[in-house]
Design a protein that fits this description.
This protein has 63 residues and is an alpha+beta fold. It contains three helices and two strands, in the order ααβαβ. Helix 1 crosses helix 2.
Amino acid sequence: MTESVVRRACNAFEKLDATVFLRASDALHLACAMENQFAAIYSSDRILLEAAPYFGLKGISVY
């Protein structure tokens, strides 16, 4: 875990709409994907997928 990833996660939390639920672990996963220049993230986790756009990622359901 780099300082840059943690910073990205914190910055995204600050920009979240009040209606968006985001767990800290999901924020770190999304920040890691963003840090590594992923365009999309695949998951079965609805909460993670709904937050993906706040990290500049396309959330794609595996279902």
